[in-house]
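stage 2 :: seqdesign
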């Protein structure tokens, strides 16, 4: 769906589909360059990363494998609880693999922090992060994210995979959700 379809629920459109597509292309070129001499395993974090994973891997010119994991830290609210639940583990053994975690958004960073220590314990050859969006003002942990699409304000956003209570995930841009919707 496009912004017009949900205009009444949004306060500000931050990025249009064109802007997102262009930035994803740039990230793909960086990743192609950095992994030119190694096989990369893209690990997507469900459900939010579905859109960025689908676009990023198709914008890449090198081979990549894909795997998925699912964690939950939000329930149906808009604040990170810091308590992470493991909903689905990887299918692949990542020992000695070059792993690139693909995330929709880094907000507090608490979820990713937990995820990275979990993955590190499995002995990957390398472990990096690509996040489409990041809220620098909200981060509560120090995470080294090698590839960042856009740094955004600390408000609750929806679209391009990001949902509120299961909705807006299929909105094709990124926008700030009107607080009226969740208050
Ligand atoms: P943290 O705070 O642990 O975020 O970095 C964990 C997960 O919460 C989701 N998240 C959001 N979802 N709009 C959303 O629709 C947001 O503004 C937002 N901030 C965080 C997201 O799945 C992230 O991976
Ligand atoms: Mg996520």
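stage 2 :: out
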């Amino acid at each position: 769906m496009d912004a017009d379809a949900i205009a009444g629920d949004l306060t500000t459109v931050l990025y249009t589909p064109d802007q997102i597509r262009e930035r994803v292309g740039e990230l793909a070129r960086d990743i192609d360059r950095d992994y030119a001499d190694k096989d990369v395993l893209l690990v997507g974090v469900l459900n939010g990363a579905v859109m960025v994973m689908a676009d990023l891997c198709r914008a890449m010119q090198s081979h990549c494998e894909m795997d998925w994991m699912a964690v939950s830290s939000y329930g149906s609210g808009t604040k990170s609880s810091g308590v992470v639940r493991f909903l689905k583990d990887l299918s692949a053994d990542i020992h000695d693999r070059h792993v690139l975690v693909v995330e929709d958004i880094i907000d507090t960073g608490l979820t990713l922090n937990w995820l990275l220590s979990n993955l590190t314990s499995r002995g990957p050859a390398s472990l990096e992060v690509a996040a489409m969006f990041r809220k620098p003002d909200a981060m509560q942990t120090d995470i080294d994210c090698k590839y960042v699409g856009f740094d955004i304000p600390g408000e609750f956003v929806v679209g391009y995979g990001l949902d509120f209570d299961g909705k807006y995930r299929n909105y094709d841009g990124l926008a700030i959700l009107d607080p009226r919707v969740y208050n």
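stage 3 :: structure notes
- The chain has a mean pLDDT of 93.
- Residues 45, 48, 103-104 surround magnesium ion (ligand 2) (CB under 6 Å).
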